[in-house]
Amino acid sequence: MTVACTALTRTALVMGATGTTGSRTAAQLIAAGHRVKAASRRATLLPGTEPVRFDWYDPATFGAALSGADSVYLVPPIGDPDPAAVMLPFLRQARACGVERAVLLSSSAIPEGGPAVGAVHRAVPGLFDEWAVLRPSWFMQNFTGTHAHADSIRDHGVIRTAAGGGQVGFVDADDIAAVAVRALTDDRAPDSDLILTGPEALSHDDIAAIVTQVTGRPVTHDRLTHDDMRDRLAAMIPLEFATMLAEMDRAIAGGAEDRTTDTVLRVTGRPPNGFRVVAERELAPTQAQTVPETGPTR
């Protein structure tokens, strides 16, 4: 279906605008003086933005969302093992509507051409002259927001993974958003994929210890087997996606995420936040806590 689009100037369409990175990206764009169309399934009003209803599985919402946008921040549909099926038709329509720059949220664990969003990553450079693929490590907000880990910490004082003692360069969603804003608005797009991490690699045992220190409540890391983790996840999400997430935990145990990069510093000009800083900001008992809505946290 072809939908007529009208062109305006310097307007970013932010997908998942109520989610973990989308909400932060929209807020930072507004703070920097940019126009933002905030896309979500319920067209939620966010201060300073133009809310627009958008659903990956309803192509009838594509045209209104794209109208007037010249750049787009892409957050894949949550829990879909084959997001390319719905994302690629949208991206082709975006290009036809005059969108010049696309910034895709992917994952450090998924290379170009890999499973799930990896197929979208492969397609983006061929569709847009200006582009970036953000490949963040696992989110620090998984332990402070509405992710299952955060719920388990609050309800049971435990983090359950199949990651063993593997270390991860956990990254603050605020830093992801800061890179997204630069990728969307700088005179030159990165035209590359960017692996984003925090300043240090930590194990889940380390995370549990820091949360314990910051909150004053004991938190432990329960080391599950791969199969136990898969089955636990499969009770909440499709088996194929649960299997993929359990495999990611197994990769962490094998050292796949034990790295840090200078990307946040290089792109934004400031160093990334460490986990203790984020925990004190979002979990400390003396702080008013703001819990982000569910997003594609990893």
TrEMBL record:
Occurrences of domain NAD(P)-binding (ranges): 16-112
SUPFAM superfamilies: NAD(P)-binding Rossmann-fold domains
InterPro entries given in the database record: Ergot_Alk_Oxidoreductase, NAD(P)-bd_dom, NAD(P)-bd_dom_sf, NmrA-like
Coiled-coil region: none
Biological source species: Streptomyces machairae
Gene3D superfamilies noted in UniProt: NAD(P)-binding Rossmann-like Domain (3.40.50.720), UDP-galactose 4-epimerase, domain 1 (3.90.25.10)
Full protein name: NAD(P)H-binding protein
Domain of life from the UniProt record: Bacteria
Pfam family membership, one: NAD_binding_10
NmrA-like domain location: 133-251
